[in-house]
Amino acid sequence: MRTGKGRRSVLKFAVAVWMVGAMVGTGVVGVPAPASAADTVRGLQWYLDALKIPKAHEITKGRGVTIAVIDSGVDATHPALAGQLAGRPGAAPEGSPQGWVDRDKEAGHGTSMAGLIVGRGGDRNRQLGIAPEAKVLPIALSGSGGNGYDGEVARDIRWAADAGADVISLSIGFEQPASVRIVEAVQYALSRNVVLVAATGAGGRTVNSPANTPGVIAVNSTTRSGGLARSSVAGPEVVLAAPGDEIIAPVPTVVQDNGYAVASGTSQATAILAGVVALVRSRYPDLDAANVINRLIRTARDVGAPGRDPEYGFGAVDALAALQRPVPAVEGNPLLAAGAQPGAATAAPKGEQTEGPAVAIKVKNKTGLMVVGVLCLAVVVGAVVLTVVVARRRRRRTPPPFGPEPGGTLVGGPGFPPPGYVPPPGYGPPGGSPPSSSDFAQHPHPHQPRPQPVPPFPPPASLPGQPGTAPPQGSGGPHQR
């Protein structure tokens, strides 16, 4: 990182990522017996039931909606994502790599975000996304943009809006005030009727850019118990909270042989919330972006302090309520109105301000063998990890080739690197020093078989205005302009 303040983010990410599971992860992989139903990929997607996604899918699965994921690119060969990408492999903003390849060879962050949103499901050992009938438009950050990080992200936001995205998901972050370029790009996307969702940060003191930009849904992360996750960032810009703790997601097989890993952070919460936005846009195709946002904040569960607060924003997203509850229309984006309050948020018990018990996900086979991170082990391992990370952090002084403008400090985990994300050589968090893989290790899902070669993809969904391609199939209104 370029400044001492920025280097603190490495430590925060090491804490935010579930280190106990990482330490015992190689042992888990070796468990030979088949998993119980609870330990399949689907069984580990605890947030699906928490958000009542099975009920939501009885109403809509996101058909007709395109979500742009600005990240490290997406592994188009992963079985969970076969046929789930929009556009064509070569489509990309000028100067950017094509998005159908995940450039993150250490964590597969972009692939994970896409899988959380549109994983196609099909069996219990394949990721089911929040909006499995929607499509992801993958946009890969180059990591070496000559016009700086915020300039590249601003360009990608504009490109996504022009390419027909209904939603833009940004599990990335830059620890500085929103630049003029970012603000103008967000305003442009909003004018094109796009909903933007961005991660708040990684336990820092201020909400990151672009999440701190007016009009953007800034997302914090919650634990299984509903409490605020430590990776979250308190600030007046926070809009909504979504599950982001111990989230299983697809990764390229160069990351994990079995194609799945577990990580925590506002990156994951952002992708999950982007999927909910896609469900709402599919259910109400005639709603403009302002009313989609209004519906989400008015149907959120009011947890934390009453009304809008700096930790949960308007509350915890309620996917089923957002699809079913009557909500009065608004004339403008409620996030652009000073002191906006939801007014109709549903009261609920306050979530604990804690990460919950320091234990690992239990992975149990039919013989009774169980790998569990015990609390006392967490304390010992945590102390060792913190010591190593602090020492490593102090040794790093050289910034990467892709850095922020003067005065800016890039953090990852909602950004680059996000929780569980390790940038490969030449592709790091803008302004961040590449950490070692031990700092951000993800946790492999032991019983998921190695992905098999996928059959030929169905014809990719076309982008509006793209010559020689057919329009996307299925119900759902066109992108509103």
From TrEMBL:
The active site is at residues 71, 109, 267. Residues 62-315 form the Peptidase S8/S53 domain. Gene3D superfamilies: Peptidase S8/S53 domain (3.40.50.200). InterPro entries: Peptidase_S8/S53_dom, Peptidase_S8/S53_dom_sf, Peptidase_S8_Asp-AS, Peptidase_S8_subtilisin-like, Peptidase_S8_subtilisin-rel, TAT_signal. GO terms for biological process: proteolysis. Residues 405-414 have a biased composition (Gly residues). SUPFAM superfamilies: Subtilisin-like. Keywords: Hydrolase, Membrane, Protease, Serine protease, Transmembrane, Transmembrane helix. Coiled coil: none annotated. Residues 396-481 are annotated as: Disordered. GO terms for molecular function: serine-type endopeptidase activity. The keyword GTP-binding does not apply. It comes from the Bacteria. Belongs to the peptidase S8 family. This is Type VII secretion-associated serine protease mycosin. It comes from Micromonospora violae. The lineage of its organism: Bacteria, Bacillati, Actinomycetota, Actinomycetes, Micromonosporales.
